[in-house]
Amino acid sequence: MTRILDAAVLGAGIAGSSLAKALADKGWETLLLDRQSFPRHKVCGEFLSPEAQGTLQALGISESVKSLGPSMIERIRLIFENGAEVNIPLPNAAWGLSRYSLDTALHLAAQQSGVRLQTGTTVTTVRPKGLGYSIETKQNGEISSIEARSVIAAWGANKYAGLPGYRPPHSAKPSYMGVKSHFRGIAMEPVVELYFFRGGYLGLCPIEGGLVNASALLARDAFANAGKTILTIMNAAARRNPRLNGKLALAEPVHGSQAAVAPVHLNHTPLAWDQLPLLGDAGAMIPPLCGDGMSMALRSAALCAPLADRYLKGNLSMTGWEHAYTRSIKREFAGPLRWGSFLQWLFHMPTVSSWLPNAARLAPPVAQGLLKATRLKPFQM
């Protein structure tokens, strides 16, 4: 007789690992799958906004994350090609923390709660079967089948043909690429610096161990001839902003920390459900300049966990789970995504660097208000 799991979570990033742990803490037999092998470096701003910390506590992982020694971040600094800058204080301290360390800690916490973690495993199909689902996987060329009463998709922004949530990319939309690298030797205040230039922007965020994470979102057509390695692309981007170029001139890249992803398509509206509940970037990806992607991933897990628990207990139908989760995702994410898209458009206007710094100095609440509009509200248990 086939053993049927209570829950299978597809994707072992921030959202998936957090949800799997939350379900295991409730006593449910949970499998966490990912096609990647860990630990790994991933394109990410590696910035945990102040709004994330209440969600970390609700998920029971705050102490695990704090023990990693994140850098404290007190403000955000926007720096334009012409050298003008805008400084925006944060309402509370944020954390700078690498995904390499964070994913490892979340996996350990999930396993300690009883989650079965299986990495290096590709999910090829998900099909309804009886009162649950059949999941076909491939690992080292071997095909396997798993059955689970519930399946949650947390596989990130990439959509795979044949799986729930797949949407063919719309060719008319601008296409971006993301690149990242860690560096040594960059003197940083407790601040995230966002450097803007023609064709994109690059953020510097202090992380644990005195390192700095550099991550960029770049228009693919603007950097088509920038080179074939991540570091040559980043250097080409840095040359478009003199202050950034000076900052990186003497920095030493950390071997093996480079990562890239392309194409990147930004969601303007959240999608909470498509045959399966969608978590994190699988459902909504806020423009990276807003710095709240990690917080949104955690929040989606915190919103989904109690509903999944009620469903598995038989106290909520699948339709009720879908409706409740969709309402909560729209309520929490619609505003930040809308304002994030506006800021993404605004900062790509060629004239923005000429008037925004003066406007921010004359009316600081305006800049703070725009930042606040992209942020999640404090998490309510």
Sum up the structure in keywords.
single chain, about 375 residues, alpha+beta, FAD/NAD(P)-binding domain, six-stranded mixed beta sheet, 10 helices, about 35% helix
What does this entry look like structurally?
This protein is globular. With 381 residues, the protein is an alpha+beta fold. The relative contact order is 0.17. The mean pLDDT is 87. It starts with a strand and ends in an 8-residue tail after the last helix. It has one domain (4-170, 265-373): 3-Layer(bba) Sandwich (FAD/NAD(P)-binding domain). It has helices at residues 14-25, 52-58, 62-66, 99-112, 230-238, 242-248, 293-313, 318-346, 352-362, 364-373; strands spanning 4-10, 30-33, 47-48, 71-79, 85-96, 116-118, 122-129, 132-139, 142-153, 176-184, 191-197, 200-206, 212-219, 252-253, 259-264, 273-274, 276-277.
